[in-house]
Amino acid sequence: MITYDKKSWKINNERVFILSAAIHYFRLPRAEWEEVLEKAKAGGCNTIETYIPWNFHEMKEGEWDFTGDKDLAYFLQLCADKGLYVIARPGPYICAEWDFGGLPWWLSTKTDIQYRSQDPLFLQYVDQYFDQVIPIIDDYQLTKKGTVIMVQIENEFQAYGKPDKAYMEYLRDGMTARGIEVPFVTCYGGVDGAVEFLNFWSNAKHAAKTLDERFENQPKGVMEFWIGWFERWGGNRADQKTPEQLERECYQLLINGYSAINYYMYFGGTNFDHWGGRTSGEQTFSTTSYDYDVAINEYLQPTRKFEVLKRVHALINWLEPLFTNAEQASTDVNLPGHLTSQRIVSPFGEVLFIENKRNERVQSHLFHQHERIPFTVEANAILPIVRNVVVRDGITIKALTGQTTGFESTNAVIYHEEGQCSTLLLQLDQKISVHCPLPNRYEWVEDDLLLFTFYHGNQPQTVQLSFEDGSAYSLDIVSRCSLEEHVTELEQGAPLSPLKWECADEPLCFLADDVKMAEKPLDFSSFGQFSGYLGYESEFTAQEAKNTTMVFPRIEDPVMVFCNDTYVGKLSKIGAAAIEVTVKAGKNKLTCLVQNMGRFNFTQALGEPKGISDAPAQNAKYLSLLAGWQVEGCGRHHHLSQIPSIGGRIGFLRSFQNLGYDRAILVGDGVSLVRVNGKPVKMLMDSQTGWSRGSAVYGVADLSDVLIQGENLLDLDVQHVSSIRRFDLYLFNEKEQILDWKMKSFAQIEEQKDWDEQNDPPKESIAPRWYRSRFSWDPVNGSVVKVRFNHMSKGCFWVNGHCLGRYWNIGPQEDYKIPASLLAEENELVIFDEDGVTPADVVIHCYTPSVRISKGNSQQPVLMLEN
User: Fold this and answer.
1) DSSP class of residue 560?
2) How many whole angstroms separate alpha carbon 75 and alpha carbon 88?
3) What's the pLDDT tens digit per position in 54-65?
């Protein structure tokens, strides 16, 4: 039923071009599933791809949940009901910028477990997961009652950098044994019996070459065509990939023979609750929004990229027999040097792709026999010229230099940039009469060849062809911008105000029954908690009142630090960090509050200890080791931000003095490349990937075993490294570590709180606080609802008891989604703010989707009334 050859996939022995929309059911409420699927289909997609996150369905070991927003079977049924094929990607590892790459947090409590390997302990839990999820996929295979046409084995396994053929085969065989009979696929994976896809945004030619070098008789596919990108807290807005670039890269896929495209993402969605992950490096925590700047935005509204893809899909669907049975051929046109051409041919016709690499529009021409065919290519764009394609009996396109959404049985739309001309050369087998309003023109160049010159102005025109047999054909000549009339804008309504607030303190108290105690701080998993907030407290003795350097030798999230109930500061560096603390003589109390910002979902650092996992030490020392490096220990001193060019394994040296310390932690980029006193270091965490060998990747190393008193020599291998951002050394004594810790969950919305009318916190008072307010909502005022936490610090928020995610006012995210399906006439917003900042400037807005419909030179907003 589902087969393939070198050129394309086949369903029921018919060639199919796979146009797949990546839509993760776990990133939007169940109430929105149907709408987003319908919009994907309306945009020309015929397939839906989704990851399946293991941890979403088994949050606690042995407790499975496939209900409500987690009802995978219902999602697959909806896809079947809509006539959409499905690519299922159950992992067990999925990446996806999702906490722990989809692995359950509690796996990290299993002693010596080796993730993503043939480790029997890991496979024991994978089997239990497969026993739950594969039967659901099995039921919805196209060969049974659903539309699943492919199942992916693992995910980007080659990027992990730990080859394990037996592991991949075990997963394949486990899926087969549980009933999977549709084709297996991999992406950067590779296992016998699976079709390999690749993931990329640009350079489709290089990826096609890679696939051709490695595999025979497999169709080319891109499993993750990255048409947007994710965002991280404190980073830039990720809107760098324009609609124009997207169109160009889509054409590159067609040029290079791809017949399966999965747009990652087509709809991004939201990392509700605490599901956002951490990609690679130190400060790479994913924002709550997973909008991804793609075809359908976080609020289910089509974007300009939706319109671009809709037009590309229309072209592909019209020429599906051509694109699914094509060969690359040598070009047959002579072009100026700034233009290049590539040609694909099939028994159904051909397409000549003209690429303009200049930063300005270019006009040129080609020939059909002796007839000159002019064309125009936009700056940095690709123009597909359709040739020798039969429209219907009696009509053949010999050349079309305008773009088209396809020639249907009686009508076609031809478009170009406003103000530009295009050409259509038709071959006809019977006489016709032509109605061709100016400024469009036509002429018979031979008895059976009709040449049109179309002008794409701001007013649409229709050219009518009337045939002797009584049939007719119409050509709608329009501008590109007129086809983007359905791009949605959100009309902002009045704020839901005034919001009247109540507040409640969050005392960092460790007297309750649910406090756990341990000699050293427990990370989140060891404590037994998925995410959210953990508090830590211990007492220590100081010999005298003074300022002391306190080192936290193992942290993987920002930490709020209090000493003797006074706020000291926030540790923003990850891995290890130091802070100056004022202590009094005698007994002192150290209190910390940590929000889990997401586990690594990529690199070999999977399963890192979240929160605080080693005891802080007083009377410690912090050194930045960025400066003072020398090639072979002589000559100029260099800074690691600008490493000199070094060929071969040449010593790059620096020393530091250790006066009395017995412990040392090194954190930064490239710590795995260093030797200390001629010996390798002990890596506590190393974010290597399959592509990072020899690179300076983020890591944490324990130097204690190689540390000596006095001068210590560092030798850093920087042969392939040009710059290092951080290289921090933390020195302390084991006897100075603070022991005997209490730990407790904080920011628990279900706990009783002493609410009171909001009073502004004392000036300079920094302490965690709760705030709540009620607001009314009427869908008439707008179905899209957003909240902004203006001027607040960092925390999380709930609406009607549902945790909708983290917020952090360091950018780039400003607006936070409140799904309309969670709202009633009266609603409650609850905020937990780490610094206790007043919510006076928090605002909730409703928005109404509207579209701008082109009418001549004017564009008027038209409200889209919703049922």
Assistant:
1) E
2) 11
3) 999 999 999 999
Q: Point out the catalytic residue in the list 224, 231, 537, 556.
A: 224
pLDDT cut 90: percent of the chain above it: 91
- Annotated catalytic residue, options 97, 156, 249, 556: 156
297-306, 486-495, 554-563, 581-590: range with lowest mean pLDDT: 486-495
Annotation marks residue 231 as catalytic: no
Residue type (1 letter), 325? N
The crossing angle, in degrees rounded to 10, of helices 72-81 and 120-139 is 40
Using CA atoms, how far apart are residues 651 and 655, in angstroms rounded to an integer?
12
Task: Return the DSSP state at 429.
Answer: S
DSSP letter string over 737-806?
B---EEEEEE--TTS----EE--PPPTT----EEEEEEEE--GGG-SEEEEE-TT--EEEEEETTEEEEE
Joined together, the tokens standing for residue 597 give 């910002």
Element containing residue 122 per DSSP (H, E): helix 120-139
The end-to-end CA distance of the chain, in Å, is 39
Per DSSP, 129 falls in state H
Order of strands across the sheet that contains 621-624: 621-624, 727-732, 663-669, 698-702, 682-686
Question: Is the per-residue pLDDT at 308 higher than 80?
Answer: yes
Burial class (CB in 10 A: 0-12, 13-18, 19+), 238: middle
843, 492 Cβ separation under 8 angstroms: no
Q: Are strands 18-23 and 258-267 parallel, antiparallel or unpaired?
A: parallel
DSSP 3-state assignment of 230? coil
Write the pLDDT tens digit of every residue in 797-848. Answer: 999 999 999 999 999 999 999 999 999 999 999 999 999 999 999 999 999 9
Q: 826 exposed, middle or buried (CB, 10 Å; 0-12, 13-18, 19+)?
A: exposed
pLDDT at residue number 856: 39
Which of 500, 460, 541 is CA-nearest to residue 853?
A: 460
224 catalytic per annotation: yes
Tokens of 420: 């530009």
pLDDT band per the 50, 70, 90 thresholds, residue 853: low
Residue 249 has pLDDT above 60, yes or no: yes
